Amino acid sequence: MIVAMPATSFPTSPRDVSGLFVLGMARALASLGHEVEVLAPAPDHRDAWTDPAPGVRVRWIDYARPRALQRTFHRAGAPDNLARDPLAWLGAASFPLALAAAMRDRRWDAIASHWGVPCGLVAGAMRGSARHVAIFHSADVHVLSRAPRALARAIAERSDSLVFVSARLRDGFLALAPEARPRSHVIAMGVDAPPSVARARRERFTLLALARLVPVKGLDRAIRALPPDVELVIGGDGPERTRLEQLARTCGARVCFLGTITGDDKARWLATADALIAPSIVLPSGRTEGAPTALIEAMSAALPVVATDVGGVREIVTHEHDGLLVPPDDVGALRDAIARLRDDATLRARLSDHASHTASSRTWPALAPRFEALLAQGSMRRADAGGRNTNVDSASRGFST
């Protein structure tokens, strides 16, 4: 198959972690013999990569002039960019039109759109005869719940299948468009299988956080909860960094800010830390996490996790089995959970063993066939009806132009 993958977030370079799970899914489908064309908003610079992996090509879509006004996406991500930068709203209006123009007169066998708004809506309208699988992430249902129900229903009507990264998101969407239930699926995003890295524990008990530094990640709570003999290492960057650094100094907490880490650097820290911490919160607007892939990355590296029970987190982490869950915004409970992990090596070992087993079914090699099946169903039905069997012959064709 030739698969289009419109998305509002995608890494612009090997060092960028924005929309990394979109790249992971594209690579996984390509590894099964399909060709993937990602359509994503262009960043405000010109050096973004266009061929990130064999079988994957990126088409960066300009949506504002001058280029410096392309500030809706990337950086801190669309929700936080829109909250902080009034000029970011220009792109919120122009990108859907630019995406529609980019998809006009192009032909794919299937479309896997990431984020219902705007990509699912636009892809459904522009799909032609292609099968459309709409994939919903954390902010989608929050946005749709504030819009007329007709918007959610329009996405549902124009999608052959709907995939939600958590059951919580699915249930929220079905409250808006209950007719979509038979075509709805819950499949969390996956991670690449971790490289083999020798364990190298530090002398001091070390927590690792892998997160964009934005309010919903709740890292200020982790800093406040940190026992004096525990170190927190934060891999990530974002607009909250200065505030978090100041808070760490004020609290006298042992916090190391690494900035964004990827590849071998990330693997080394996953092999060095004693546990991963994910203290996400529910924002006053009601927005929270979907199904954070950082949890799956840590568990795949046999790292126990301590996380707040928000969004779809409990669909990844089972309390006392492969991690510890605490209520959101409860610094005391978070501190107690950290202390338990620090003091109980037997608990850490048990959680670690179970975490590794849990994550084994959440890697891209394990998940890709499920997405492949959803994307292929429409092509197979058309072939059975006497049309061209796109599953057989499209893999040998180049990308549409």
Automatic annotation (TrEMBL):
The lineage of its organism: Bacteria, Pseudomonadati, Myxococcota, Polyangia, Polyangiales. It holds the Pfam family Glycos_transf_1. The keyword Transferase applies. This is Glycosyl transferase, group 1 family protein. Residues 21-192 form the Glycosyltransferase subfamily 4-like N-terminal domain. Residues 382-401 are annotated as: Disordered. It comes from Sandaracinus amylolyticus. Keywords: Transferase. The keyword Transferase applies. Coiled coil: none annotated. Residues 202-355 form the Glycosyl transferase family domain.
